[in-house]
Design goal:
Number of strands: 0
Distance between the termini: 49 Å
CATH architecture of the largest domain: Up-down Bundle
Strand content: under 5%
Structural class: mainly alpha
Shape: globular
Helix content: over 70%
CATH topology of the largest domain: Growth Hormone, Chain: A
Radius of gyration: 22 Å
CATH class of the largest domain: Mainly Alpha
CATH superfamily of the largest domain: MFS general substrate transporter like domains
Length: 312
């Protein structure tokens, strides 16, 4: 295998074990929406959790960190397990696991139980993404990029819907009554167990070629740092924006949650919403803006670096 070959050989579909089910893409999109719905809900629950359990801001922040770590760091582990055992349970059970533990935080016996329940909910979120991303478009023979765009967009829509849904539940039933919001996750798990086809299997083992990574390590490192920084900003906003609006701006719990929902709604439009002509125009503008962006970054970075050198 040469350095220009793909990292992973494409799987060969075993049609005897994995018949084509068009409904699979719909189920994976719904699963992505529901799982990320619960992922975005902790920030809305933070003010209520602080009031109910007497948490400090540090402890509340730790809860957000535990959810972020358990829902992301464990994804490679679940990806390995999904490739080894080829069970649809990794995807099908995820909405129920995430929904039950996140929606029942009002029934926790203390801070230790809060940490455990948040971690368990994050495990459900982590188990869904690797297998679902690999299988959502695996049975399609055309328009796979567009289908993947819808799959990604459905998760972002879940981020926007989650805060609004939990704001409504807090306003209507209170913190302990928010277990009702677990019903969509449990219901979708039952539907996925009934209608989700088996994962796609490979007739030959997949081989991994790391040579392309070695030749592209600089842009990949830059991309990693950009995504890492973007994630920090997103986690801070989703975890502490409702708390800030509640404690410093006098918003009600529901209004603070709806504000977070409005913030997350701005990220919902995805690549499938951009017409080809507009996409080409954006690409030309992006290419022409790159030199100016580099100069801007250098101009901003030099005084910051000098300041840190003087104060450090």
């Amino acid at each position: 295998m040469t350095s220009s070959s793909p990292l992973v050989e494409p799987p060969v579909l075993d049609t005897r074990q994995a018949p084509a089910y068009p409904i699979s893409l719909v189920l994976y999109c719904l699963g992505h929406l529901v799982v990320d719905l619960y992922s975005a809900s902790l920030g809305v629950l933070q003010p209520a959790l602080i009031a109910a359990y007497g948490l400090t801001l540090t402890k509340a922040g730790v809860l957000g960190g535990v959810l972020a770590l358990s829902s992301s760091i464990l994804q490679p582990v679940y990806g390995i397990l999904a490739d080894r055992f080829h069970s649809r349970l990794f995807s099908a059970l995820a909405p129920a696991v995430a929904g039950i533990f996140i929606s029942s935080l009002g029934w926790a016996g203390g801070y230790g139980w809060l940490l455990a329940m948040v971690f368990a909910g994050g495990m459900g979120m982590a188990s869904f993404h690797p297998q679902a991303a690999a299988n959502a478009t695996a049975r399609l023979t055309r328009n796979r990029a567009q289908a993947m765009a819808f799959f990604i967009c459905s998760g972002t829509a879940g981020f926007a819907i989650g805060p609004a849904l939990f704001s409504f539940s807090l306003e209507t039933w209170g913190l302990r009554g928010s277990w009702v919001v677990a019903i969509p996750g449990v219901s979708l798990t039952l539907v996925m167990l009934a209608g989700l086809p088996p994962p796609v299997r490979s007739e030959r083992p997949r081989s991994l070629d790391l040579s392309p990574l070695k030749t592209a390590w600089k842009p990949l490192t830059l991309l990693f740092l950009l995504v890492f920084t973007r994630s920090i900003v997103q986690v801070i906003f989703t975890q502490f924006l409702p708390l800030y609006l509640r404690t410093h701006r006098g918003f009600t719990l529901a209004a603070a949650g709806y504000a977070l929902a409005a913030f997350m709604t701005g990220a919902v439009p995805g690549p499938q919403d951009v017409p080809p002509a507009a996409a080409a125009s954006l690409q030309r503008r992006q290419d022409s803006a790159r030199p100016q962006a580099r100069r801007c970054v250098l101009r901003l970075g030099r005084p910051i670096a000098r300041h840190h050198l003087r104060t450090g």
